[in-house]
Amino acid sequence: MRIMFVGDSMTIGTAGDFTWRYRMWQHLNATTGPYRIVGPRRALHDTLQDTPTSYAYGDPDFPEEARGHLAGWGEGWLHMAPLIGDAVRRYEADTLLVSLGLIDLGFYTNAEQTADNVRRFVAEAREAAPRMRAVLMPVIRNVRAATDAAFAAQRERFNELLGKAVADLSTPGSPLLLASEPGEWEFETATYDGTHPSALGEHLLAGAFADAMHQAWGVGAPYGSAYRAG
Fold it and tell me: For residue range 202-221, what is the model confidence (pLDDT) as tens digits?
C-alpha cells in the first residue's frame, strides 16, 4: 500500500504543527502491515514567508520518508486535478487520502464547478493508476460556514454532489469512499483559528480517514481514543 495525502492548508500544515498526516502515520505504524507514504512534497507552509519551505514539524523526529504529500496552502480540487496524474504515476501511489474543497468554494469555483473538478481529479488519477482507491473528505465546518450563509449553502450543496460523485464513480476495481465528517468536530475546539486543525482536530481528521479505511477495506484498526489524548 502506497499512500498519498492530498489536501489544502489543513493538510500541509504550518511551522510547528504536527499535522493530521503525522497522526495518521502514528496510527498506521501501530495497526497496519507494510505500507509507504509517498508524494512530491515534504515541507510545511511558512506563514511568515508565505512559502511552503518550513520543516519545523511539531515532532522533529517525524521521519523524512513519512513526510511525503501533495498538499498546498490555498490549493484545491481546481489546482490538484492537473497535478494528480503525474504525482500518482511518479510515486506509484495506489491509495489517496483527500481533503479538499474549502479553498475552491471560498475563492475559485461554485459547488457544481468544484464537483466537476472532483470528477476530473478521479479520471486523471485513474489514468495513471487504473486500480487506484481513494477516501474523500467532505468540506468540514469552519468559522466561515457559521457566519456566511451563502458559503454555508455552497458547502452543503458541494458535499451532496461529492457524495453523488463517489457513488457514481466508485467501482469494484477502483473503489472510492466518502469519509464521515468527524462527529466531534466543533471549530471552536478542533481548530486553532476557526479553520486549521488544533491537536484535537488533527486526531479527528486522521481518525475519520482511518475508520473509513478499516470499515470498508479492513486496513489497520479503528482509530483508538488513546491517540486523541496527546
Answer: 999 999 999 999 999 999 99
